[in-house]
Design goal:
With about 260 residues, this protein is of the alpha/beta class. It has nine helices and eight strands. The chain has a single domain, classed as Metal-dependent hydrolases (TIM Barrel, Alpha-Beta Barrel). The chain has an eight-stranded parallel β-sheet with strand order 1-2-3-4-5-6-7-8. α5 links the parallel β5 and β6. The termini are close together.
């Protein structure tokens, strides 16, 4: 069985087809998924998914790519995270790839999320792109190691992965790891300790080979697991079992929530 540790089922590319999408998840033996919040205006829809479906869970947070939206504060995030279907704070972090100029607001937003995670005891879902040095620095300064979490859709080097692992974080790989151009990323994936490995789709984006260019969805996450099994030289079943165990441990979800046979 498999679990998608990061997806956006509330996005317009996926929400209208939710019943069929959930059925395709079932057929692919994808037993659960974490639905990720990216802005506070859309948070109610994310939370509603987790309440409507027992094998879906949610996060609360504001993505670093959005400059002109409701800005989160620690108290507000803590209040929203009190719902038991919320299993993490995020998606948060830094992204210097899409945005330029003075990004001090982005760094402050990241600090707010880490403080909220520490206040709630929930893990963090961290996004970092072209900002690894500042991401790790702020994680250390704000005590992110006290809660741990996941570096999602990881695309950085081994030094970055190793530093995050040392702070108690898992490393999650998306469909990018299947791309022909991702040889260096596959080398990183081969080195991550088994108990720190996660898989995700980041759907509706980044569909893995052979679906690249199509709308991504959680039922495609076994393709990510298959690539990890290949580069690590282990059976697919081993990657499936380990990443599921890591998901349950990281987000403190009881195994029985995924159904029989876990």
């Amino acid at each position: 069985m498999f679990v998608d540790s990061h997806c956006h089922l509330d996005f317009p590319e996926l929400a209208p087809q939710l019943p069929a999408l959930l059925e395709r998840m079932r057929a692919a033996d994808v037993r659960g998924a974490l639905c990720i919040s990216v802005e506070l205006d859309r948070f109610p829809a994310v939370l509603a998914l987790a309440h409507a479906h027992p094998h879906l869970w949610a996060t609360v947070g504001v993505h670093p790519d959005y400059p002109d939206i409701i800005e989160p504060d620690v108290d507000g995030l803590v209040r929203l995270a009190a719902d038991p279907r919320i299993r993490a704070i995020g998606e948060t972090g830094l992204d210097y790839y899409r945005l330029t100029g003075d990004l001090g607001w982005q760094r402050e937003r990241f600090r707010v999320h880490i403080r909220a995670a520490r206040a709630t005891g929930l893990p963090l879902v961290i996004h970092t792109r072209a900002a690894a040095e500042d991401t790790l620095r702020i994680m250390r300064e704000e005590g992110a190691e006290q809660v741990g979490g996941v570096m999602h859709c990881f695309t950085e080097d081994w030094a970055t992965a190793s530093a995050a692992i040392d702070m108690g974080f898992c490393i999650s790989f998306s469909g990018i790891v299947t791309f022909k151009s991702a040889e260096s990323l596959r080398a990183v994936a081969a080195q991550v300790p088994a108990d720190r490995l996660l898989i995700e789709t980041d759907s509706p984006y980044l569909a893995p080979v052979p679906y690249r260019g199509k709308t991504n969805e959680p039922s495609f996450v076994p393709r990510v697991a298959a690539m990890l099994a290949q580069v690590r030289g282990v059976p697919l079943e081993q990657v499936a079992r380990q990443t599921t165990e890591n998901f349950l441990r990281t987000f403190r979800i009881p195994a029985e929530a995924l159904g029989p046979g876990v």
